[in-house]
From TrEMBL:
Name recorded for this polypeptide: Metal-binding protein
Organism: Klenkia taihuensis
Region entry Disordered, spans: 1-26
Feature: compositional bias, Basic and acidic residues: 15-26
InterPro entries in the cross-refs: YceD
Phylogenetic classification of the source organism: Bacteria, Bacillati, Actinomycetota, Actinomycetes, Geodermatophilales
């Protein structure tokens, strides 16, 4: 049986072509532990559920494009590159639908078990390599969610809704207004309003 070909430096990962398994996990056996080894990792994977904040987020199953480089260093694997992810939600001012595509830069060190970085860092201070795999989902999720606005708007200058009729102010004429009647005089106003029957 012939030996498997040795991966070339900078070659694209074959993980994207492997059936089954978690699409967010990277098999590090092709990268190796020799410091300076690099691989490009290009893949489109479906977004898990729950990536968002109250008014905007990534739809479950939406395609997340990963353009990453994995570099073996002394303490672990350095992951860097760009993530492209679609987001949908509602404008916090007028409640119209909001759609956008985020282009985010990522860079993170995943530490080897037993490395100095792993041993001297708190549990939540460094990401760790699990055996021969690293999981990209938490890194991308954290990057996306921390970038999302808590109050997204459809346009930067959206005027919101009219407090009286509930219509979108930007769609109404400039002279749009509602007659404001002091509730203390409402009874008298009804008494002196001409009847339609007369």
């Amino acid at each position: 049986m012939p030996a498997a070909p040795t991966p070339r430096r900078g070659a694209a990962s074959t993980d994207a072509r492997r059936p089954g398994g978690d699409p967010w996990k990277v098999d590090l056996r092709e990268l190796g532990r020799r410091a300076g080894s690099m691989r490009d990792w290009e893949k489109t994977v479906p977004a898990p559920e729950g990536w968002g904040v109250e008014m905007i987020g990534v739809p479950e199953g939406a395609p997340v494009e990963l353009h990453l480089r994995l570099e073996s260093v002394m303490e672990g694997v350095l992951v860097s590159g760009e993530v492209e992810v679609p987001v949908t939600g509602q404008c916090a001012r007028c409640l119209d639908p909001v759609e956008d595509t985020l282009h985010l830069d990522v860079q993170e060190l995943y530490a080897y078990e037993g490395s100095t970085t792993e041993a001297t860092s708190e549990e939540d201070e460094v990401r760790r390599i699990d055996g021969e795999h690293l999981d990209l989902a938490p890194l991308v999720r954290d990057t996306v969610v921390l970038t999302l606005p808590l109050s997204p708007t459809c346009t930067p200058d959206c005027s919101g809704l009219c407090v009286d009729c509930g219509q979108r102010i930007d769609d109404l004429p400039a002279d749009h207004s509602h007659e404001q009647l002091d509730p203390r005089w409402a009874g008298l106003a009804d008494r002196f309003t001409p009847s339609k029957e007369n």
